[in-house]
Design goal:
mainly alpha, globular, 0% strand, 7 helices
Length: 259
């Protein structure tokens, strides 16, 4: 330290200031450059690897020709701040759920279009179901607001129950699996039937048969989404679906508006 002090005492103050400025500038440049050095990406977790492997396996089974196809790379994004395994769980669950809704909508559209309805009155005062109001969207428009709210609130209950019971599909749960009412302690009274398979027909099925059923459900759900949107598109824009032109009547309302 004495030799350093002796060297420092012989340096002109201006030279010392210049030396200090250069040192500070060099440190700033070095720090900035380090920020742009590519960091090694962390290795994918075991859960993420398993999730992407399952996704690819399902894709190959559901469509052996197209196989795994993700041009937007949705499986590599982060949804709600989740990791890759949680994101894949969200995407798979969303597809299965929307497929089930579309299958119910597709069958319901055909049933309502043929005038099939419940034989009993719709309301206490004896008002019948609006089966003669026109096409299915027009029949929905003819429902009383109270009836629409009952349907919407019941669906909301089912959604809340699904999200708050069992192992969540974004946290290791099985996508598409609906929790059993009988396994929940949040319902204050017994429920004799579950939403999925209320009569227990699948209890004795083998795992291979259940897997084939899940693949069939995904494919049927995809077709049903195309089908119900085809019906509604042709109703709103004549000629948009040539195969349905002249089969479904036009609709002047808004099919996506609940009220």
């Amino acid at each position: 330290w004495q030799s350093f002090d002796s060297w420092l005492s012989h340096i002109h103050p201006q030279d010392l200031l210049l030396f200090t400025m250069k040192a500070v500038l060099f440190a700033a440049i070095a720090g900035s450059a380090a920020a742009f050095v590519p960091q090694s990406a962390p290795k994918a977790s075991t859960a993420a690897n398993a999730a992407i492997d399952d996704l690819k396996a399902i894709a190959e089974k559901s469509n052996p020709v197209l196989k795994y196809y993700d041009p937007l790379e949705l499986a590599n994004t982060s949804i709600w701040g989740s990791d890759q395994a949680g994101t894949i769980g969200f995407l798979r669950h969303a597809e299965i759920k929307h497929g089930r809704i579309a299958m119910a909508a597709f069958v319901g559209y055909i049933v309502q279009s043929n005038g099939i309805h419940w034989p009993w009155p719709m309301t206490i005062d004896g008002t019948p179901f609006p089966y003669d109001a026109g096409s299915p969207p027009e029949q929905w428009d003819a429902l009383p607001d109270a009836a629409k709210w009952q349907i919407i609130l019941f669906i909301g209950f089912l959604e809340h129950f699904s999200e708050s019971n069992g192992t969540h599909y974004m946290k290791g749960g099985k996508p598409g699996a609906y929790p059993k009412f009988s396994d929940s302690d949040k319902i204050p009274h017994p429920v004799p039937f579950n939403l999925f398979d209320p009569f227990g027909f699948s209890n004795n099925r083998s795992e291979e048969a259940k897997e084939r059923g899940r693949i069939a459900e995904i494919n049927n759900g995809r077709l049903a989404q195309i089908g119900i949107l085809g019906f509604l598109s042709e109703q709103k824009l004549a000629g948009s679906v040539p195969l349905l032109e002249g089969i479904v009547p036009p609709y002047a309302g808004e099919p996506m508006a609940p009220f």
